[in-house]
Amino acid sequence: MLGDSLTENVPWAELTGRHDLVNRGVGGATSADILAMLPQVLRLHPKAVFLMVGVNDVMHGIATPAILANLQKIADVVTASDAQVFLSYVLPVAEGIPNGSKWNSQIRALNDAMKASFSGKRGVTFIDIRPQVTDSSNSLSPSITSDGVHLRAAAYRAWVGAVKSNLTKRSAYE
Fold first, then answer.
1. What is this structure's pTM?
2. DSSP per-residue codes, 71-124
3. Residue 172 has what pLDDT?
4. Dihedral of the alpha carbons of 48, 11, 4, 128, in degrees to the nearest 10
């Protein structure tokens, strides 16, 4: 499990019943930080890497092409190690937080660019929990966030369900 504070805040092994899951979420991490962490992650010889990163990039004003380039490098390095990449779309933020509309616009552009860039790419599977965590305006639903960015239990249940489902599919091929 690789990503920012959204990943870090979850006891993945406990919630999935998979004690072989290692949590490498780091609060505040950007895509560049994750790229720099890859040598440490790959020393663990993962068979799969579940990745969600990008919201901090957006909040720091990093342009979509730069974020996408980092994600492509991450995916290339991970798949070259014979691990499967499970790439989560970046979740929007709640509309009511400062800059929320602006950030959500860039997050939508980033997710569209990710879809265009990674669709059909060997070794990369998308995870999309946005339908379970967004409201009618496609912003993070206020009911599932504590501060407009971080998730509450209901959102984590949806994410854990998606991870477990993909782990089951992955195990079927091994």
1. 0.93
2. HHHHHHHHHHTT-EEEEEPPPPPPTTSTTHHHHHHHHHHHHHHHHHHHTT-TTE
3. 37
4. 60
